[in-house]
Amino acid sequence: MDAASAPASAPVHAVSGAGASASPNEFAQVDSSSKPPPRTPSSQSTTISTSRARATFRAHASGLLEGEPHMTQDDFVKAIAPANENYHKIARESYAVLFSVADRKHRGLVSFQDWEFFENLLQKPDAEYEIAFRLFDTDGNGVVDYDEFIDYYNKNKSDDSIPFDWNCDWVTLYIGDKKKRHSMTYQQFAQMLRGLQGERVRQAFHFYDKANTGYIEPEQFQKIIEKTAKHKLSDRLLASLQTLCNISTSSKISYANVRAFQNVIRETDMVDVIVRNACAKSPDGTITRLDFMNEAARSTKFSLFTPMEIDVLFHFASLDNNTGRLSRDDFRRVLDPTWQDPVTLYTLAQAEKVEAAKNAFHDPGHFLSEVFESAYHFLLGSVAGALGATIVYPIDLVKTRMQNQRSKIPGQLLYKNSWDCFRKVIHREGFAGLYSGLGPQLVGVAPEKAIKLTVNDFARGKFTDESGKITLLGEIISGGSAGACQVVFTNPLEIVKIRLQIQGEVAKSIEGAPKRSAVWIVRNLGLLGLYRGATACMMRDVPFSAIYFPTYAHLKKDYFGEGPNKTLGIGQLLVAGAIAGMPAAYFTTPCDVIKTRLQAEARVGQTHYRNIAHCATTIMREEGFKAFFKGGPARIMRSSPQFGCTLAAYEVLQGLLPLHVGGKTEAGHSIPSGEAKEVPPEKRQVEYLRSRNALKILLDIDENFGKPKVSQLKESWKLVPGFNAK
Fold this sequence. Notes:
Number of strands: 8
Radius of gyration: 34 Å
Strand order of the largest sheet: 1-2
Helix content: 55-70%
Structural class: mainly alpha
């Protein structure tokens, strides 16, 4: 047998011997009679890059022993369980128990050779079970005997764990009865662990069912599952365990119910495969109970789920959706332990930013990373917004001139229509004339888009319920709030832009008319003058955003089918943005006409508008109702593609220039989804995945395996002067 495959030990409780030497090759030097049988080729060790292992070791080792760097237990936990990962149901400090495997000489320090051995161990396909085996093989002889197992179990189990009989018939099947005990090889030990959780549940059921009725109370069932499988279940499922009694007419839970529940949890991966395949075949991405059963029949060679197991699965998946048609998110909400609803994600993100600001002086690196992330999104939004504004700016100029044209006054009918305006601008002012006033537009587009998107996201987070859904009214209010907040930035820049756009035609029609700069206009207007027409601007922007954002979100979701299983392409995002902008732009044209008239400088002989009401009545009296929709087609041609181009450019830029924060990549849409933003499994280091899975196996033995007990903590605190244990 090769050195890597011999399951020698290294726990802190082990007696030093052959299995505790410094070199991985010496792990093979044990009595052949005590070795487990050779393994199949599939479990042979995969040697990792020594340079990578050395780099990781040097980055974390803070201890010194005989002049050589060594890892302390804290160093080890930081290396094997990075602080930036989302550990969900597994406490990060639990990873310290794995230190016993790496610390082969039991010195409380890990050398580079120890670390290299441990990383090679994690590369094995069955590393999860071998780590557990090495922990219980405390004397390092390659097998685990009964007394050895019970001793290590008692040292690590919870003080309040549900009693477990290690002399039961189930245990004797693996290690014999009291008179004929035998040690377990690695393969026998791993198989015993595989079935241990089921036996724990069975014994716990008997513990509560003292009258042997075959039923227990819902709260007793909840306690059993929390003690045996909490680390594998989502928060939503844990909060609803007692409702299992509702799948029958009884107010109690039978053992058959418990076994069906346990089988569903054990087959979670297969459930996900079946649900994914069935949802992919459904036109709307949702499935019924019959759809699931049909897909299960196609995906398996025999009936994998009993009728009761189907009842259990659909009971919990339907907790937040009682329509009978369930999406993949409905299943993930209860079966995926990493699931977090959008409100929780948003709250956590905001709390992290607040906490980073509070601890800016204590942890400047974290605070600066939050600031940098915000600056990154602001910069991308600015570039995308500037690109969108530049593309459609000539249309905006035509729109402004058409709206400001007072056709009932003799000699003022400069343009017949938008196309005529476009032609005459190029003819009289040149191509550059189409971009008059672009500067203020580019200056204002960054804060305008940033505040609009930020406020919309914030408001949507507030209106989103626990199931991750938001009402249409909530969407409208969120969009309207975003539009209202942007006016503080847009109005001053709009009035400067409009006056720059119009002065070109004034210079051509009035000889000797001076050409003003943006700076001159700002100084001439003053602070109050810059907010002339602000109310009309708000009357335009609030309904525009209230129409645009909900329409855009529903087009993506309901028409193009965006969801967990489908990401929209740039073309689809552009079309969604353009279509959403059409009604938003056209229906707000009257307010835009009034705003333009109020902000444009009145010429000699033209009516000077005093306020919104005066402007509206004057336009109606002098020019008729149709005048309120001047520039309407141009607004559609401008606003619709502009915001569509901005959103598409933003998402393209995110893909081209991803932000790496704490080892993670930020990408996606501005509206939060129900999935936690963590590194995809295929991109994580395999060592992290296997160390995590090893802990899951240990937690099957006891929910707090490896954590310091309260009694142990009290003993430690007795060493502190002045400590008085109560």
